[in-house]
């Protein structure tokens, strides 16, 4: 049986999550650059308005292929086990990201004006 | 350890293990890092309500280590451990408070699991951008947690009718 508190909890979580999503959607802006980081270090910064393909690889043979086309960035190929990054839809708004956890690769959109303030360094 | 306890552990670990396997072959339609159905949490939450916090913790940890070595890797095991521990902590606290039914406890467990995973993910990729996924993970934890909790409640009612785990 379900108690009243369960419903209150559900309501609170829904309100918080939906408010956050709504806020993110309403305040989002088109991004300007694609920043690729590997293990927290900036690997490459590319403009979003230039069509390119970038191979992000390391010595162990792990690779991800990033494709920028028509102002959108997408991971088109990778040899990671879960392929979450490849399934991710293409991104172009500021703060959107595609993450490949197994390879520690993060592709994120930034507006192109600010510096890399979002990146945590050790 | 009594023979009956030992047998219960063995059976429940096997059950959780199978559920983890089933979960691993179900493709998840939403490509968000850290997202999980959490089928194995069904066993953990039933153990929490019928046996106790300590037993639920042992079950959860043994399952994660076993599954990590069998289907995953050291890094997936690390994500699961963080999720499992945070989820257990929230569920035990919620259960102690007695304000929630199994569904509420399970919702907190689901959210704890997803949040724990995303926190470790942030640390692993060394990038705070992952925090933007949190609202979506809260909703997914809520939905899967509620489903697991309601299923768990139905199962517990039926187990209590038999004399399994008594004595």
Give keywords.
heterodimer; A: 122 residues; alpha+beta; mini-chromosome maintenance (MCM) complex, domain 2; 2 helices; 23% helix; 35% strand; B: 167 residues; mainly alpha; Arp2/3 complex 21 kDa subunit ARPC3; 6 helices
Short description:
With 122 residues, chain A is of the alpha+beta class. Chain A is built from 2 helices and 7 strands, in the order αβββββαββ.
How many β-strands of chain A, per DSSP? 7
**Annotation field: number of helices of chain B:** 6
Widest sheet, order of strands of chain A: 2-1-7-6
Query: In CATH terms, what is the architecture of chain B?
Result: Orthogonal Bundle
Q: In which range does the helix fraction of chain A lie?
A: 10-25%
Overall description:
The complex is a heterodimer of chains A (122) and B (167). With 122 residues, chain A is an alpha+beta fold. Chain A folds into 2 domains: 1-29; 33-110, Sandwich (mini-chromosome maintenance (MCM) complex, domain 2), CATH 2.60.320. Chain A is built from 2 helices and 7 strands, in the order αβββββαββ. Chain A has helices at 4-27, 84-87, and strands at 33-38, 41-47, 52-57, 63-69, 72-78, 97-100, 105-110. In chain A, strands 2-1-7-6 form a 4-stranded antiparallel β-sheet, with no helix packed on it. Chain A has a 3-stranded antiparallel β-sheet with strand order 3-4-5. In chain A, a hairpin with a 2-residue loop joins strand 1 (33-38) and strand 2 (41-47). Chain A is globular, with a radius of gyration of 17 Å. Chain B is 76% helix and 0% strand. Chain B starts with a helix and ends in a 6-residue tail after the last helix. The mean pLDDT of chain B is 90. The longest helix of chain B has 28 residues, at 134-161. Chain B has 167 residues and is an all-alpha fold. Chain B has one domain (3-159): Arp2/3 complex 21 kDa subunit ARPC3, CATH 1.10.1760.
């Amino acid at each position: 049986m379900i108690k009243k508190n369960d419903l209150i909890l559900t309501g609170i979580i829904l309100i918080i999550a939906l408010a956050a999503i709504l806020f993110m959607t309403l305040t989002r802006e088109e991004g300007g650059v694609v920043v690729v980081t590997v293990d927290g270090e900036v690997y490459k910064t590319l403009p979003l308005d230039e069509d390119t393909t970038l191979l992000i690889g390391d010595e162990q043979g792990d690779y991800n292929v990033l494709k920028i086309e028509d102002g959108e960035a997408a991971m088109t190929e990778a040899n990671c086990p879960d392929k979450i990054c490849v399934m991710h839809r293409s991104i172009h708004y500021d703060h959107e990201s595609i993450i490949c956890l197994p390879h520690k690769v993060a592709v994120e959109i930034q507006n192109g004006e600010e510096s890399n303030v979002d990146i945590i360094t050790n | 350890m009594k023979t009956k306890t030992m047998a219960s552990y063995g059976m429940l670990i096997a059950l959780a293990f199978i559920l983890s396997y089933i979960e691993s072959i179900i493709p998840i339609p939403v490509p968000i890092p850290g997202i999980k159905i959490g089928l194995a949490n069904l066993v953990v939450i039933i153990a929490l309500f019928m046996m106790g916090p300590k037993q639920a913790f042992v079950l959860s940890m043994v399952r994660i280590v076993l599954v990590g070595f069998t289907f995953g890797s050291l890094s997936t095991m690390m994500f699961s451990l963080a999720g499992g521990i945070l989820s257990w902590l929230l569920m035990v606290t919620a259960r102690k408070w007695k304000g929630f039914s199994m569904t509420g406890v399970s919702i907190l467990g689901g959210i704890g699991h997803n949040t724990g995973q995303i926190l470790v993910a942030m640390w692993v990729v060394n990038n705070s951008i992952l925090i933007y996924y949190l609202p979506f993970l809260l909703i997914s934890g809520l939905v899967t947690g509620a489903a697991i909790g309601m299923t768990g409640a139905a199962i517990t009612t039926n187990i209590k009718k038999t004399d399994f785990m008594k004595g």
